[in-house]
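Reviewers of the previous submission asked for a worked example of the structure-prediction workflow described in the proposal, so we include one complete record here. The input consisted solely of the amino acid sequence. No template or homolog information was supplied to the procedure at any stage.
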Amino acid sequence: MAHYIRIGPDGTQYGIWNIKDEVAVRVGVADPERAPACFFRAPPGGTVWDAMKKDTPWFEPGGETPFIKLDLAPGQYYPRIARPIDQHPQESPGWSPTIHTDAPAVAIYRGQLNALTAQLDRICRTIHPSADTLSAYGHDIRNLLILACTEVEAHWRGVLLANGVVGDRFTTNHYVKLVAAMRLNEYAVSLPSFPWLDPIRPFEHWGTSGRPTEEIPWFADYHAVKHDRESEFRRATLANAFCAVSACAIMMAAQYGHDAL
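From that input alone, the workflow returned the following structure tokens.
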């Protein structure tokens, strides 16, 4: 049997299914043959898809199927990529079993994130973050930006390596492939300590133009100010530091779920 997930018109997920030509069964339902809309059998001379089209309103008027075939069977997963579980499909980003197998690494990542947020908080005691001051730059901010971006890149590289991607030198051309798999462009970070600031979306436009470094300008600025402080010092801004630290938090959640934070 192949495994499928049913997607509603609004993108809501409605369970995992085992489907072959003759039978479709909803996974995770006790006694599915007696449960409503959880078991279908092909009619004589037809397929199970015909049965579902006849007995449910799930299919589009043109016959488009709401079922997407899965690459992995239930219980299988991609390492370091969080996913909601079947019974709680709206609890995004869910979790990943590797939060347990990678417990030492998760603890170190969490400790580094705590150090970065503490450094950002210390800077914000001197520079009050607001629309007027987010363009401020300086040595402490540059140092924080470099550390945070280095940490983000460590997350990216770790996910690729965990999933069998091999290479001598990764660039944003490799890392941008994580956007779709981890839905990074959908994340936003709110700042309870600074509620007047808008939520930060560091990956919002990543993967949209074919220029992956330019699509995350805070990362492009990090590269510039790291390699040429004398000419590019002004790019080490407080806004970029907020984006880089937020990106670290997003990578933690996108890999292991909210529990990692």
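The mean pLDDT is 94. We consider this example representative of the routine output the project will generate in years two and three.
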